[in-house]
Structures are given as C-alpha cells and as structure tokens.
Amino acid sequence: MDVKHQVFVSSTYVDLVDERREVMQALLELSCIPAGMEMFPAANEDQWELIRTVIDESDYYVVIVGGRYGSVTAEGVSYTEKEFDYAVERGKPIAGFIHASPGDIPASKTELDPAAAERLDAFREKVKKRVVKTFTDPASLGGAVSRSLVALMKKHPKPGWVRGEHAMTDATRAEIADLRATLADMEKTAAVGAVQSEQSDPTYAQGSDLVKLRYGLAVKGWGDGTWEGSTAVPWDDVFSALGPLMIDEASSQVLRKRLDGWLLTQVNNLPRHASELTLSVNEDDWQSVIIQLRALRLVNMSIRKRGVADKSTYWTLTSLGDRHLVELRAARRSETVESA
C-alpha cells in the first residue's frame, strides 16, 4: 500500500525562500506531503486555528531556524516559535535544523532589531535542546532533511495517508459489514425502548396531583420582613408554567426565577399594601420539582456544547414533554361551531 506522510515545515519565509524550496523538493522525493506557510499567505490570529489543524493532521514536523525571528503574534512570540511550541505540546516527532554559522548569514537576512535578535537567540537555544542538524546552504539543508526524515520515520512510524481505494481492504469491508449489522440491531432495540420510555410512570405524582411548595416571601412597604409559607399546586400547572421556556432550552437559574414569579401569583392572602413582594421557592422543593419532571420523562438535561466558562445546567423538553405541553397549553376550538 502506497503510504504518504504529511510533514509540516515551519520557518520564517523571506530569508529562507531557497532553503524552503530545497526542503520541499527533498520531501517530495521521499513521497511525503509538504505542508507549511505556503498554504497561509499571511500570518495572523485568524489563521492560527487552521495552522493548528494542519499541524494536528501532519505526521512529522520540521523546523528551520535561520537569521530572522519573523513576524510576531500579539503576545510577542513569532509564529514560527508558536508553531514549534504547539508541535511539542501535541507530541509530534520533530526534526530541527539550524544554521551552522549564524554570524556568516548576510545582513539582509538577519535581525537588525536587538530585541528581535535576542528572542531569536533564545528560540535557537530552545530548538537545540532537541536533536538538531546544522546546514550552511540550501543544498546541504535539503540533504540533511532527507536523511533526518528517513531516520525519524523508522524511529517514530506513523500511519500516514493512502488513497481511498487502497484504504478499504477485505478485512476492513468485513468489519464494516459486522458493525453495520450490530448498529442495525442496536437501533431496533433503541426504537423499542424509546416507545416504552415515552410514557410517564403512573406510580409517580403527576397531572392534577398536588405538590406542596414552600417559599420565603420578602415584603417591603408594609410590615417589612420575610414571611414563610407554602401552597399546593397541581403538577400540570407547574409544568405548564415552566415548559415553554424549555421548548429550546433554559438554564436552572432561568427556570428557578420563572417558578418564583409564577408561584407568587398562586399564593392567597398576600399583603395588599406592600410596595414590593419577592418570593423564593425553598431550595429542596425546587430540586424536587426538577427531579419529578425528569422522573415523569418530561425534561432532560441539554447536551448542547457550550463555552468552558459556562457552568450552568440547561434543561430541555423530551418528545413526551413537548407533546404534553401542547396538550396543556394549545388553544382548542369551541365544541359548538357556527355553520356558515
């Protein structure tokens, strides 16, 4: 099977045009797939995600350090060094190449800015902590890359890439057929289970059954203070109040606030002259509401992906919950329909 390995080539560009050309030719002669900045005309943060993806998909990583540090990111790190650090982080097999005599590099291809030159020296030392080869001109670099890649492939064999028609062997076809059969059986079992699961357990309180919800009531403007009480409401009324928020999805905080506001409308004998009333459902009772709705298979936790900083729990209706909410909230036509 003809396997080709993808090799990411990282370096500055303007000062190493000839060197990169020799490296690309050497990689092609090894039947490798070169990848590098030629794919990214401009270095900017918008392209970093694409660069990371290409490095992730590459089997090997080559870094070339000449006389320039190169363009830098907003953090002051060159893109070449950033690519190198990412390759190290991802555990890519790395072949490093540094100029044998940095002092002999023409001034037009070196850093004139002292700060950039200092960062280049630090980066060069970082690369030298790994096994590196030196070069003096483009031709010597091409030969060094060829020899190093052959050794690297033997030491760290990678799967590489193959043409689609070559990837499918008889054994693979048989394995896929078995997996398809297994998947069909699992889907059939899941379908039966889904029909059974889309029914509420009749042993759980539901519908017109009452649930007693305790609350704290903060009063302002008339006997300021906090009162405690409780009221009993039907489970269907609770679900009817919360359900519309979960047609898409809603966080626990949003649902809790909705339950507080709705229950306030269900409490009798509220202080009439109060300027402000704030009700808060008892924490244990709130948790019991969510557990009960889950037990009745009306709601489930949402599995939608979110940012790392979002720690909220989100809830959404099940198919059973959606149908039950429609039954509770949808307006029906009058039984008596006037004839035209």
From TrEMBL:
Q: Which Pfam families match?
A: DUF4062
- For the DUF4062 domain, which residue ranges apply? 6-87
Protein name in UniProt: DUF4062 domain-containing protein
Naturally occurring in which organism (per UniProt): Microbacterium proteolyticum
